[in-house]
Amino acid sequence: MIQRNTRQRDTILAVLERAEGPLSAPELLCRAQQDLPGLGIATVYRTLKLLTEDGRVRSVNLDGESLFERADLPHHHHFACRVCGKVFDLDVCPLALPQGLAVPPGYLVEGHEVTLYGVCPGCSA
Amino acid sequence: MIQRNTRQRDTILAVLERAEGPLSAPELLCRAQQDLPGLGIATVYRTLKLLTEDGRVRSVNLDGESLFERADLPHHHHFACRVCGKVFDLDVCPLALPQGLAVPPGYLVEGHEVTLYGVCPGCSA
DNA sequence: ATCCCTGCAAACGATTTGCAGAACA
DNA sequence: TGTTCTGCAAATCGTTTGCAGGGAT
């Protein structure tokens, strides 16, 4: 649990606020260092872990790497561009029946993750 | 492209054949070493890469790690247990509309990945 | 006898952890 | 002032790569 407010935590949260999609820890570090040079990668990871435990941040797995986004975003999923590798938020959930899925009996579904792969507008030009 | 048949490649493929779900490279190594002690992790990765390029194996990303499965399996998705961490194959695609998704114009969808999270029968007991 | 393939070990990138000093409350 | 936090560096873990020897064709 987070117990104190610090410049690094404010900065990390601010970067997440203005992100256009989920960010990896190294990417987040890169952006945050523009506001707060000297910030260390360890602090980024420690802060992300605390924020996740606090329920303020959520992690999504994509293309083998962990990306982080604010947890207060409305339910959505992601689109990963095969060309430039960028990840975009989609404001739709293509999963028609979040619950009534035909899963074998005994499996308790608590959540789902949907990722679409393809080419983004910028790369298809 | 694979050009020669070797004991290690046969073994790796055999392990994938009898897997109940996608496997990570370290997990695959562990199982394969029971048939072929001395097998190295580098060979596992190199073989998986070649098999993927050959279209015989496919990789799925889940929980931040890359898992591998045979590419000749019918279209399906995965269920990841939050308790034991195991991944199971689901023989259904909960994605009702593989095509007509409400993605913003300009995005070309070439594929999708769906993962359900929850508790498996073994862990809910 | 080629030349591909393998094992070992070093290299790498992402993530975690130990430790001493810096900074909130 | 007392802890919590932070930065640095070392440690870990998954993955890749270089190299010399072994094996398939």
Distance between the termini of chain A: 46 Å
Overall form of chain A: globular
Query: How many β-strands of chain A, per DSSP?
Result: 6
pLDDT under 50 segments of chain A (min length 5)? none
Kindly report the CATH topology of the domain at 2-70 in chain A: Arc Repressor Mutant, subunit A
Spatial extent as radius of gyration of chain A:
17 Å
- What is the CATH C-level name of the domain at 2-70 in chain A? Mainly Alpha
Share in β-strands of chain A = 25-35%
GO molecular function (chains A, B): DNA-binding transcription factor activity; transcription cis-regulatory region binding; zinc ion binding
Cofactor (chains A, B): Mn(2+); Fe(2+); Zn(2+)
GO biological process, one term (chains A, B): regulation of secondary metabolite biosynthetic process
Family (chains A, B): Belongs to the Fur family.
